[in-house]
Amino acid sequence: MDLPVSGKKALSLALGLSLFTSGLAVAAEFDGKSQIKLRQGFMQTQKRQLVKLTAVAKGEAEFNDAAVQRAANMRNLALIIPDVFEVPSGLDQFEGTRALPKIWQQPDEVKKRIRRLRAETARLVEVALEKDPEALAQQLKRVGGACKNCHDNFRKPLKKP
Fold it and tell me: What structural domains and CATH numbers belong to the chain?
């Protein structure tokens, strides 16, 4: 696939982030709390992209090249999810995480959900290039559905205060 210059920069960033997260995983191999912070920061990065794209889809923000870049960021982040979750089970025993043990016990199910997210975020880039807010909104629902599907199956529900 021939990427625009910004897409090449995003892919380079994603690859760099992947190497960085892998390095952190090795450096913090016995520090579960660091691993949890790494995963949570990664998820917050994804969330930020989605929030900004949702504002574009709602007409609350301009549909410009930055929006297309955010879609590419989502695609690239989906490519490195396995690096963020490659640490074996046991991290679910630490406070501050909602990961269920089965995320490490059911790797084929996790891979299936990652493939779906990757497909939906790849399509998100295509839709973003069209700069059609309605089409973007529909594709964001699909991306959100892919996220929700994994969260519903591999994350503990949020505790009510």
Answer: 5-85+92-154 (1.20.120.10)
